Amino acid sequence: MEAEKQIELLKQRTEVFLGEEQLIERIRAGKKLRVKLGVDPTRPDLTFGHMVVFNKLRQFQDLGHQAVLVIGDFTTRIGDPSGRSVARPILTEEEINENAKTYLEQAFKILDPAKTEVRRNSEWFGKMSLLDALQLARQMTVARMLERDDFAKRYAAKTPISIVEFLYPLLQGRDSVELRSDVEIGGTDQLFNNLVGRQLQKDAGMPEQAVLTMPLLVGLDGERKMSKSYGNYIALNDSAKDMFGKVMSVPDATMWVYYELLLEKSPAEIAAMKNEHPMEMKKRLASALTAKFYGEEAGRYEREQFENVFSKKQAREDMPAFAWDALVPAGAPDASLVDLLAATKLFPSKKEIRRLIEQGAVKIGDRKASGVGERLEKAAAAGTVVQAGKRIFVKIL
């Protein structure tokens, strides 16, 4: 494809695209672009927010370019300060390695492994001496760092900013020098860091990388960006059931953003969809996203199960079932509802179970649980279906 047409396609759905003229020249010269994307393994799961930038990286791959996925196992020890009002918690090396284990498996649900170069930035930072680090620090002033919106706000509010946090953009920028990247992709909150990479390449006498930023995906609350820190996210390794259910929980206005950024629908396609019933379009969205990770059959199945529960008021066909004697002490004729549900191991804590009961979100058969003190008798409980919240169903045998 001609260079100009490639750039026209690549600019779709982006917020910022700097250096496109240089990219056109490189593509015309027959260069396979090295396109860098870095992810820090702060938790074990990637999210649909990552999917936005992975989709763009896959687009570069489909056009014949080289994706370079950087696992920030070294930079995670500092913590990216982007968008933060306080410093990130410090993770141990063991925690970082454990979190990184599933990253590639998740990323390759979207990226083409054959066209992906995977690197860890500990490869070069692990060999860096203190003198090297000081030389790197000389390349940025405090005044320039305070141009960052998040740093400026924290400084004005007298919220502590560590010197180590100042180093993070420099380390991310040094990644670009080490990898000789032609393009760096990130969310809009990464613009400052990406520009630092561009500057460090220039200082090193290298061709500067283009900078391409993508919109930040709104989370399940429909307000803040999707983030593992906020807990408002859908993970790429969520089960098909949870993935479908979480998508169905997003506000109507948010689903159009998901159609655009996750399924890459055009404005014209979305305008036509808005003529359809919102509930139907949300089901199609949830089914399509589930199918993207688990196949068309899974997408159809989860839609059927959702409709059974919420439209036809039926229970899921695949709900877990537990024998009474497996949940309570042997010979016990009755048990508290809280203890019974806790024994299934489907809930994070008894506190969460009590919260659901108090909110009226737990049903025993067709009726709501009477309260946190409710007890069930063995004889009466046999064959009973307990529903907790919107997505958890348990059958007692």
From TrEMBL:
<dbReference type="InterPro" id="IPR014729">
    <property type="entry name" value="Rossmann-like_a/b/a_fold"/>
</dbReference>
<dbReference type="InterPro" id="IPR024108">
    <property type="entry name" value="Tyr-tRNA-ligase_bac_2"/>
</dbReference>
<comment type="similarity">
    <text>Belongs to the class-I aminoacyl-tRNA synthetase family. TyrS type 2 subfamily.</text>
</comment>
<keyword id="KW-0067">ATP-binding</keyword>
<dbReference type="Pfam" id="PF22421">
    <property type="entry name" value="SYY_C-terminal"/>
</dbReference>
<protein>
    <recommendedName>
        <fullName>Tyrosine--tRNA ligase</fullName>
        <ecNumber>6.1.1.1</ecNumber>
    </recommendedName>
</protein>
<dbReference type="InterPro" id="IPR002305">
    <property type="entry name" value="aa-tRNA-synth_Ic"/>
</dbReference>
<dbReference type="GO" id="GO:0006437">
    <property type="term" value="P:tyrosyl-tRNA aminoacylation"/>
</dbReference>
<comment type="function">
    <text>Catalyzes the attachment of tyrosine to tRNA(Tyr) in a two-step reaction: tyrosine is first activated by ATP to form Tyr-AMP and then transferred to the acceptor end of tRNA(Tyr).</text>
</comment>
<comment type="subunit">
    <text>Homodimer.</text>
</comment>
<dbReference type="InterPro" id="IPR024088">
    <property type="entry name" value="Tyr-tRNA-ligase_bac-type"/>
</dbReference>
<dbReference type="InterPro" id="IPR054608">
    <property type="entry name" value="SYY-like_C"/>
</dbReference>
<dbReference type="GO" id="GO:0005829">
    <property type="term" value="C:cytosol"/>
</dbReference>
<keyword id="KW-0694">RNA-binding</keyword>
<keyword id="KW-0648">Protein biosynthesis</keyword>
<feature type="binding site">
    <location>
        <position position="228"/>
    </location>
    <ligand>
        <name>ATP</name>
    </ligand>
</feature>
<keyword id="KW-0963">Cytoplasm</keyword>
<dbReference type="GO" id="GO:0005524">
    <property type="term" value="F:ATP binding"/>
</dbReference>
<dbReference type="Pfam" id="PF00579">
    <property type="entry name" value="tRNA-synt_1b"/>
</dbReference>
<feature type="short sequence motif" description="'KMSKS' region">
    <location>
        <begin position="225"/>
        <end position="229"/>
    </location>
</feature>
<dbReference type="GO" id="GO:0003723">
    <property type="term" value="F:RNA binding"/>
</dbReference>
<dbReference type="InterPro" id="IPR036986">
    <property type="entry name" value="S4_RNA-bd_sf"/>
</dbReference>
<dbReference type="GO" id="GO:0004831">
    <property type="term" value="F:tyrosine-tRNA ligase activity"/>
</dbReference>
<keyword id="KW-0547">Nucleotide-binding</keyword>
<dbReference type="InterPro" id="IPR002307">
    <property type="entry name" value="Tyr-tRNA-ligase"/>
</dbReference>
<feature type="domain" description="Tyrosine--tRNA ligase SYY-like C-terminal">
    <location>
        <begin position="314"/>
        <end position="393"/>
    </location>
</feature>
<keyword id="KW-0436">Ligase</keyword>
<keyword id="KW-0030">Aminoacyl-tRNA synthetase</keyword>
